[in-house]
Write a structure and sequence with these properties.
The protein is α/β, with parallel strands linked by helices and 244 residues long. The protein has one domain: NAD(P)-binding Rossmann-like Domain (Rossmann fold, 3-Layer(aba) Sandwich), CATH 3.40.50.
Length: 244
């Protein structure tokens, strides 16, 4: 990972933050980016630099082509290339199916899937020129067969699309660019009400009976960034939830 340039989207907090810190510790130059959480993003860059690493912060809305262009221009201006892209940006907005609108569905696909497509296009153009690179996607157990959740159907469907996209993109960009994904299970973030009966039921349904730490998902991304014989895979890290 020494001196590799890694863009990690949605890296102001949670899984993205943990991945940025771990990759920086391994020697990568990090591009931290977020749409709204500016202060937290800047804090991640500050932490990386205090620990002896190198990083920049870019604010961008990656659901738009303009935002993607800003991100990649800023990266090339700073570092001249892109070696690793981690498509981690995304958000869950739950809503009952019959109450959901077309705009609800568009919004979830823009944040969780189309941003992934646009960033992957931009990264692939750079990586194909040098015939080397890694693209990693954050999917979800919610996108797996039998893993959906009725009150977040648009999100689940977008993540299912992300899993298919990962496998198809791996075929499209082989042999020079590897494409993989990590499908997290119930990861300990502020997004969950840990005391709610529903969430307690989620954790009870895992084999390990415990939350997954963001750092554990980051370790999965690090493995996939370095594993030269792995491509087209969706690595499930869910404490055994989909096995139980």
């Amino acid at each position: 990972m020494k001196d590799k340039v890694a863009i990690i989207t949605g890296s102001a907090a949670n899984i993205g933050r943990a991945t940025a810190l771990l990759f920086a510790k391994e020697g990568a130059k990090i591009v931290v980016t977020t749409k709204n959480n500016i202060k937290a993003g800047e804090e991640v860059v500050k932490t990386i630099k205090e620990q002896g690493g190198e990083a920049i912060f870019v604010q961008a809305d990656l659901s738009t082509q303009k935002g993607v262009d800003i991100l990649f221009k800023s990266t090339l201006d700073a570092y001249g290339t892109v070696d690793i892209l981690v498509n981690n940006a995304g958000v869950t907005k739950g809503k009952d199916f019959l109450a959901s609108t077309l705009e609800d569905w568009k919004s979830q696909f823009e944040d969780n899937f189309f941003s992934m497509v646009l960033c992957s296009q931009a990264a692939a153009r750079i990586m194909l020129e040098k015939k080397a690179g890694v693209i990693l996607n954050t999917t979800s157990i919610r996108g797996l067969e039998h893993g959906g959740r009725p009150t977040a159907m648009a999100y689940c469907t977008a993540k299912a699309a992300a899993i298919s996209f990962t496998k198809n993109l791996a075929k499209e960009l082989a042999p020079h660019i590897r494409v993989n994904a990590v499908a997290p299970g119930f990861t300990l973030t502020p997004n969950y009400d840990q005391d709610s009966p529903m969430v307690k039921g989620f954790i009870e349904g895992t084999l390990t009976k415990k939350w997954i730490r963001p750092e554990e998902i980051a370790q999965a991304f690090l493995y996939l960034a370095q594993a030269e014989s792995v491509t087209g895979e969706n690595l499930v890290v869910d404490a055994g939830y989909t096995t139980s």
